[in-house]
Predict the structure of Coenzyme A pyrophosphatase.
Amino acid sequence: MNKHEFTLRYKLHQLTTAITSAPSTYLGRKAAVLIPIIERDQQLHLLLTQRAMHLRHHPGQISFPGGKVEPYDTNAVETALREAQEEIGLMADNVEVLGVFPAHKTFTGFEITPVVALVKQPFELIIDPGEVADCFTVPLSFFIDNNNRHQVFHYRHGKRYHVHFMPFNDRFIWGVTAAIIDLLCRHVARR
């Protein structure tokens, strides 16, 4: 799938609200992530980061560039774009924002809004070591293959919840990042 086909599929389908989310009895800390999609050799890739080990929340986990909404951010898109620039050097004018998925609530008290965007041009990664340990890409086709997306059940306070996970080479993508990838794949793979 190339950028053109992805854009058509993304825009033709109504956004689903069927995202596996943790229950929340309080308003979580609002955050946003950018789902940067890069085309290489007419093949789309998702750009992912590995969080620095010294971070307080989710150290070492695979994630999308992003972070908490600041008071000066006007919306989730602005937050995601600002965080991507800070974390990996991806400038806002080098992305085409396609849309926003529904917010995903986590057990750790965050409400994360995923922002889907195509990267227009190749760019030089400038990793902020204070937030990011590594940055890498995975072909979108790998994730679209249902055999590479998995779920297990997790019990918390006597209730059963889905936990998504996706092993890729020596990486283990799980939790909210995997749930967002699963939602993206289900959305663009619909016919």
